[in-house]
Amino acid sequence: VLGDPSAPVKIIEYSDLECPFCSRFHETMKQAMDEFGKDGRIAWVYRHFPLEQIHQSARAGAIGAECANQLGGTQAFWGFVDTVFTRQEEGLSSALFSEIASGIGLDRNAFSACASSNEYDARINADMENAVASGGRGTPHSIIIAADGSKQVVPGAVPYATLKSQIEQALKVQ
Known about the structure:
By secondary structure, the protein is an alpha+beta fold. It contains 6 helices and 5 strands. It has helices at residues 20-37, 58-87, 94-103, 108-115, 121-133, 160-172; strands at residues 2-3, 9-15, 42-48, 141-145, 151-154. The protein has a 5-stranded mixed beta sheet. A hairpin with a 5-residue loop joins strand 4 and strand 5 (151-154).
């Protein structure tokens, strides 16, 4: 979670680190956090939805993000995800994930040991099942949950103006 977990509006994003549309939407979400997250109005909940049938390194990326979190906490998780998205066009691989982990200050050997374990498979599988249960068929798939529990689906990598409008609508419901 990025932002205040008790924020009145939560945006749950199901994402794939190898998906170019997710990379674009990641920047849109960062813009939303700058505008609405700094004062605690929204929280960004990131969940994994690696589309392994088309993105061969997506699961390894999801595991890498969880290992970054394990070794360095929330800041390392988001630093890892941010960096993977900025370097996505280089072609994702275990070597790149290890390089990114080292670059954000994580111990490369500890990261490699974590990444080669099966420790996060169940968590990633649960995120994927949750994505499908919530209507996700592709990435990014996001849901905005207002304080009253009402939900809005964000249809893919929408432009910032669309997301902002949806957030503003959710903030009015209290």
